[in-house]
Amino acid sequence: MSTAIISSAIEQSDTQKLIELLEDKTLPIEDVRSIYNAFRDDKQLVGQVAMNLSLRTSVYEREKEYSPVMVELLIDISKNPVDMGARWAVAKNPHTPVEVLRHLATDSINLVRALVATNPSTPSDVLDKFFSDEKIVRDGLSGNPNTSPKLLKILADDNDKMVRMRLAENRGAPSEIIEILLKDHDIDVTKAARANLDGRQ
Fold this sequence. Notes:
By secondary structure, this protein is mostly helical.
């Protein structure tokens, strides 16, 4: 992608073209920053920048795409009041710094808190506080490798199948807790627990 195309679109405030460019997760991160800096007051573009950062980040390959520029953008977007919805993309990004996650853990929007609860970079002391939060937030704890074993043991008995399913798939959960789910009454949960344990051998 030519920098000239991006510069021209920024100069002409061609929002549609810039959104199209941001839909490409291979767009150089420096170009993403240029677009963000030029349109940090544009709700639609701020949201699209946040989405671009989400698209280019894999939870499974956490080091992939890491860069100081990405971290700088995540920090800035988390404080940007123009698009509250963009905060959810920051909340779930594994490259978001811990201090930003601590801040977002007190967000007024429950979906933002729920995504902080699922973020593998969120420290366990923050996750502990989520246990008394709304169900949508608390449910995210079962799949997080940093959730304390004490809480995971309680979640292994949760009425919601999806909570137990996420726990059964949680690679960070102690084996003895996953073994509890081998006796679960739901076959999908027992299969996931068996696959998790087999993957550890």
